[in-house]
Amino acid sequence: MKKWIGLASLFLIGCQALTSLPKSNQEYIVNQKNIIETLQYLTSDELEGRNVGTVGIEKAAQYLENLLKNHGISPYFSTYRDTILRYEPISFNIVGYIEGKDPNLKNEFVILSAHYDHIGINLQAAGEDKINNGANDNASGTTILSEIAKYISRQDNKRSVMIVFFSAEEKGLLGSKHLAEKLHSQNFKLYALLNFEMMGVPMHNRPYDLYITGPKTSNMMEKINQYAGYQLVGVLPEEKKYNLFAASDNFPFYKTFDVPSQTVCSFDFQNYSYYHQPEDEFHRMDIPFITSITQKLLPVVSQIINSKPDEIQSIR
Which residue has the higher pLDDT, 27 or 13? Predict the structure, then answer.
């Protein structure tokens, strides 16, 4: 009985969260064709695996810049490109900006992020295919973020939002380290960061859709599930075993700003066998899952952006 009461409570919370959003939020439907278009392009052989400093990643960057521009998302800096210092070849994050509407909260930022680079061509790979197209890692997260960005650009948000497509993640989180240091030096007010990583296929036999890294560093997991109205995210044992909290672009921001900065992911070490291999291809992605999980994340992201002051907090 207690279990059913708990489920009923979560359902009511979810309904209340949804009905509290503007009507446009409730009606927004993620278009599966858009998911396919972006994911298929980012994973095409034309982009040669999106390694830093290549023609392929330049094409990916132009695609993401145009996506932001076409949906009215401004560059945060003088252009969308944030050049990573002290690193060759020249690499850059793509950074967009959506100004908040609340006179006080708009001075705080929520960063939504994903890395768009991958490892490129491996001439030593077995077989004829030498291109690591990086569909799951991380064209999936990039695609999901691109759809969330379109959605957020249509809303009246209390806080300001920064959309960041990181580069050089595969070289040691260089893009996120650079941007965290740069923003911190400018007295940037970061409220929270949510990063999207490897979300192309569903987990097997889990009571949640995604897992979160660093679950004990903040109340982010609790709030995400409250906003979703069900257990959208959970704790994966391998997350602690492999210290995944420190393995993605959330970590430099956590270290630098000491605010909730976490990654959500569906790669559970059992559901996908092609990590950093040429077989990580578009046709292996579960398009209905990607579409569904993006749809489920929309009200969650909106609630994070519009939450009350200090509602999402670090745990020390």
Answer: 27
What kind and span of H or E run contains 94?
strand 92-98
**Closest to 213 in 3D by CA, of 176, 261, 142:** 261
Q: How far apart are CA 40 and CA 271, in angstroms?
A: 21
138: cis peptide before it, omega within 30°? yes
**Cis omega (within 30 of 0) for bond into 215:** no
Residue 197 makes CB contacts below 8 A (sequence gap 6+) with 114, 115, 137, 138, 141, 248, 249, 263, 264, 265, 267
CA distance linking residue 116 with residue 93, whole number of Å: 9
Q: What is the pTM of this model?
A: 0.92
Q: How far is residue 134 from each of residues 171, 280, 281, 284, 303, measured CA to CA in Å? A: 15, 6, 7, 11, 30
| Angstrom distances, CA of residue 154 to CA of 29, 187, 305, 309 | 12, 28, 13, 23
Selecting from 3.40.190.120, 3.20.20.80, 3.30.300.30, 3.40.630.10, what CATH number does the domain 2-306 have?
3.40.630.10
- Looking at the chain, the whole-number percentage of residues with pLDDT higher than 70 is 92
